[in-house]
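Subgroup meeting minutes
Present: P.N., E.W., G.H.
Scribe: E.W.

1. P.N. recapped why we're keeping a running log of single-chain structure predictions: easier to compare across weeks, and new members can see raw inputs and outputs side by side.
2. G.H. added today's entry (158 aa).
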Amino acid sequence: MPRDVPARDVMTTEVVTFAPDEPITDAMARLVDKGVDAGPVVDAGGKVVGMLSTGDLIVQESQLHYPTVINILGGLIELPSSKKRFEHELEQAVAVDVEDAMTVDPVTCGPDDTIEMVATLMHDNNVSRVPVVEDGALVGIIARGDILRAIVIPKGEG
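Output recorded in log:
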C-alpha cells in the first residue's frame, strides 16, 4: 500500500462547495445534480467552516429520536448525549440555510499529509470525505474512493 503518497496526488480539485447562507433546497438540488453525497461549506474567504452531507439533509424527512429519559426511584434523568443529539437533529429538520444543517468543525487535512494519515482520520472520525486545506483555504477533497484507487492503481499505472 502506498502509505506515503501525499494527499495532493489523490485529491479531487473540482469540489462541489456550499455557502453558509445558501438555501437548503438549492444545496439539496446541487447534491443530487452533481451526484455527490457531501461537500464542504466555505465562507467568503474560502475557509472550510462545515460539511454538508446527504445524511444532514435526510433528517428533514426522518423521525426524530427523542431524548432518552430514565426513571429512577420516581426521579427522571435525561441522558445528556441523547438530548444533544435530539437538539442537533431538530435544528437540521427545520433548517432553512446550509449553516443550519451542516456539520461544524469538519475534519480536514493538508496537501502534504499522507493517504495513510487521511485514511486514519476517516476511520477515527467515521467520515467518508476529508477537505484538503492549505493556508486555511480549500484546495481539494479526498473521498474513500480516492484512497482505494491509490491503493489499487499504483502511481504511474493509471
